[in-house]
Design brief:
Bound molecules: 2-acetamido-2-deoxy-beta-D-glucopyranose, copper (II) ion
Protein name: Amine oxidase
Radius of gyration: 30 Å
Cofactor: Cu cation
EC number: 1.4.3.-
Helix content: 10-25%
Distance between the termini: 34 Å
CATH superfamily of the largest domain: Copper amine oxidase, catalytic domain
Keywords: Copper, Membrane, Metal-binding, Oxidoreductase, TPQ, Transmembrane, Transmembrane helix
Largest sheet: 27 strands, mixed
Structural class: alpha+beta
Organism: Branchiostoma lanceolatum
Length: 802
Amino acid sequence: METTDSRSHTYSAVSLATSETPSWKTTSFWQAISVVLVFACVVLTVALGAVVASMSSGTQGQQSLGSTLAPCPAGIPVEPVNEDDPGLYDDLSLAEHNAVRVYMESRETLALTPWDEAGFSDNYINSIELHVPVKSEALAFLDGGGDKPERQALVTVHAGGKTPPVVEEYVVGPLPNPARHAPYSNPARRSPIPWTSRAIDAKEYALIFPIIENATAAVHDILKESYGYTYHNCSGHCLVDIDTVPKGYRSGQRRSWVLFHRGGVGGVTYFVGFMIQITHESVDPSEWHVSRVYYNKQYFDSVEQLITGYADGSVEKDTPHADIQDDEILYPTFVRRGKPQPASPSRGPTLTEPGGRRYAVRGRHVEFMGWSFDWRLTTSQSMQLYDVRMNGERIAYELSSQEATSFYSGYNPGMLNNLFVDSYWDVGRSFELVRGIDCPKTATFFNTLQQRSTKEPRLMQNAVCVFELNAGIPLRRHFDSDFAGGFNFYGGMADHVLVLRHINTVYNYDYVYDYIFHQNGVIEVRVGLTGFILTSQDKNSYGYPLYGGNIGNIHQHAFNYKVDLDILGAQNRFETVDIVLENITDPQRPDLRHIQTRIQRNLRRTEREAAVQYDFNRPKYYNFYNEEETNRFAVNRGYRVQLNGIAKTLLPRQDWAPMRGVAWQDYQLAVTRRKESEPSSSSIYNQNDLYEPLVDFQTFIDDDENIVDEDLVAWVTLSTHHIPHSEDFPTTATAGTQMQFFLRPFNYYDEDPSVGSSNAVLITPGERSGSVRVERFGTPTGPACVSEQSPFRYNGTWRGPH
Ligand SMILES: *[C@@H]1O[C@H](CO)[C@@H](O)[C@H](O)[C@H]1NC(C)=O
Ligand SMILES: *[C@@H]1O[C@H](CO)[C@@H](O)[C@H](O)[C@H]1NC(C)=O
Ligand SMILES: *[C@@H]1O[C@H](CO)[C@@H](O)[C@H](O)[C@H]1NC(C)=O
Ligand SMILES: *[C@@H]1O[C@H](CO)[C@@H](O)[C@H](O)[C@H]1NC(C)=O
Ligand SMILES: [Cu+2]
């Protein structure tokens, strides 16, 4: 990269001039400017010539005015995953996926049928993903030079061929050449995994579709008259079905309300007022049937009952809504409309990397300005970061997304039952990101593999990106006035951060997940909401009327994260630093009273003491520290969890059974002793058995273990209430719907560690009056350059392994 830097001549005169005197005051500046301008004119002429030439020759020339600048240096090269020696947390490679599948399918005792040939009542593999090593073995390897832990996979089997059928999980190893498998056993979880709590897969859907077909064929004419849309035999105006969750009202039930929304662009924003409930609980699919029907706010026991009532006039009929018939109404579309902005189309600002890539990527390992971490994108739990360090010191062993929920309210059976627990819906399915919109053009993109409910893993192209961002705000700055019209100094530093991003699309919604590393030791964990809202024909007490006469039903979003903090070792303490009132005799005026706040450190000794339900009347900090380690001022070195996205969950766990499956949602922060048996606050099996969930987070707290000088995990919940409004069309926007928490050093360092940055700027008055000295600590100010840009490409394909 040095060679590219030294290529500059034109701009160096300008940048050198800044050190002593304001550059515009020097003659060398004006000389330089005229050189630049003359050069620019020549360049413009050449470029115009080139453009004209390329236009006349009819080719799509890459020539542009920008191409006259030198390309920026490439910077630190990106190294691909080393499949011969994968990192501890690297997701399975394609070869490993295949080896695991072949190994498992050839075990006679397991009696597995390959996915392609399997039917509902066979035993077959439902998912394959990495099984991370136990922490003690991983640490022995990372810190103690111990052996590299064996690489293993976790395989989920839908054992429909067993009596009774059951869901099984196996740990398979060692990779890449599996030779052993053993049931994954976890004493803290319900065992075995109930068959009725399994995630619905393609085999089950294949048996449900004919029932939907049959029912909708019977009511074909009713749907056509009522909505202008049909399901069975439809053409043009088609309905699309989705099933609700949870599947029943108590543990062990399996019944799905099937909802219908309009097909086509943004169709998910218009659900019709017809729904059927299918009971598919029996192990014998021939017993599955339509058990309830809902039409225009009326309930029926069968499709026939609706048809008879509709014919004899006893049923109140629905009529097509004008909006829905009118293709000119664009609300749910992305067609540009309204006053054009900008008045004449032009490009917005973009990032360049004049110093080249300043972060290192080796496989799934990333390093940036003292930070380092590994990441993986799991099929069942989305993004997981491991071994997060700053300047070589581990801050967190694991920082991972656990669960995302959205619980709706309404009168119709769809909204009554839309209690979404998204790990069930493939949170790992993060689709292709678009360069320049989802991530800056300068970003590094990663493909991921996901295998669930498919024969082979699916390649998700460019599903994750990493980039350095100028956040557009000073990280720190001060203008030091001399209070005489001038200044003593200015010190400042731009907030250059590293962002790890993926966007998970769960049917209608898009969650933008960010992990942001600031240079002052702060990690920002953020999630933003966008995508389509769900609407329904419903009462106005659940939302405002919108497009098509539907309302946007009120719902609450919640996200849970696991933060396995390791502050200078795994043994840590958790304290709240409470801000409390004191009412004292004023020390300077004993005749007066004085009321103010003070700090009160409260060590939390057990898990129950450490389950936080935010109380506005008791403000406090949440601090994790090491009792043995102090900073220069003899204060325990710690990291603080700061919550910037909290919302009260009103639904009571005591009185409302489904809340048991999402117990974490009641705590903005809960601190528990880390256990291998408590790897996650949720599971994909919680969705369909919220009543007796496979993972009951409350049990993590209820054993009330000692948490003093133990390995601690902070479970953090971000949440927001969403009352949809007209501007949620076409989609909810991220502005205003971002929630975040921060991990902030709290007396961890003796001072802000960003003092080491050579990107800081210190300006002081120069010796001659009117001049200034600009100290950039060696950072060059030129030459200007253009970042190499990959041509715009979008594939959008995510099926198939290659
Ligand atoms: C199809 O629907 C009819 C009437 O609605 C019902 O009698 C029949 O059992 C259904 N068949 C299947 C396979 O669901
Ligand atoms: C659907 O199409 C098939 C084949 O054209 C036809 O036999 C059937 O009657 C149609 N069903 C309805 C409800 O119109
Ligand atoms: C402060 O203390 C005084 C004297 O005990 C008492 O009269 C007063 O109510 C107290 N005020 C508050 C706000 O606690
Ligand atoms: C997308 O990628 C797949 C797999 O590499 C390839 O087969 C397909 O042709 C690509 N499609 C487009 C539109 O580029
Ligand atoms: Cu929402």
